[in-house]
Design brief:
Distance between the termini: 17 Å
Low-confidence stretches: none
Mean pLDDT: 89
CATH class: Mainly Beta
Number of helices: 2
Number of strands: 9
Helix content: 10-25%
Strand order of the largest sheet: 3-2-5-4
CATH superfamily: HesB-like domain
Radius of gyration: 14 Å
CATH architecture: Sandwich
CATH topology: Hypothetical Protein Aq_1857, Chain: A
Largest sheet: 4 strands, mixed
């Protein structure tokens, strides 16, 4: 089981945490929503939660709750800038389908 980050994503998380002045890493999970079933949830991690799986890649710790892990195991998190738009992107090998807008996925 693993979650990994591209160099771009790791650098972005490090700069966010430095600007924020606190936090121990990135919290990644999913929630039920959208037309395809699930959406990614990404936030700062200020402390580990009971049952978290913890991964470290490129100097960044990633915290994932046990319920989300089976849905996102093997995911590569990237950070992409296109013109004025910038966002985290997820390459999840478990995805079987995505909605047309790209906001939700099914497994």
């Amino acid at each position: 089981m693993a979650i990994s980050l591209t160099e771009s994503a790791a650098n972005r998380v490090k700069s966010f945490l430095a600007a924020r002045g606190s936090g121990i890493g990135l919290r990644l999970g999913v929630r039920k929503t959208g037309c395809s079933g699930f959406a990614y949830v990404i936030n700062y991690a200020d402390a580990p939660q009971p049952g978290d799986a913890v991964f470290e890649d490129r100097g960044v710790r990633v915290f994932v709750d046990a319920e989300s892990l089976s849905l996102i195991d093997g995911t590569v998190v990237d950070f992409v800038k296109q013109g004025l738009n910038e966002a985290f992107r997820f390459k999840n090998p478990n995805v079987k389908g995505e909605c047309g807008c790209g906001e939700s996925f099914s497994v």
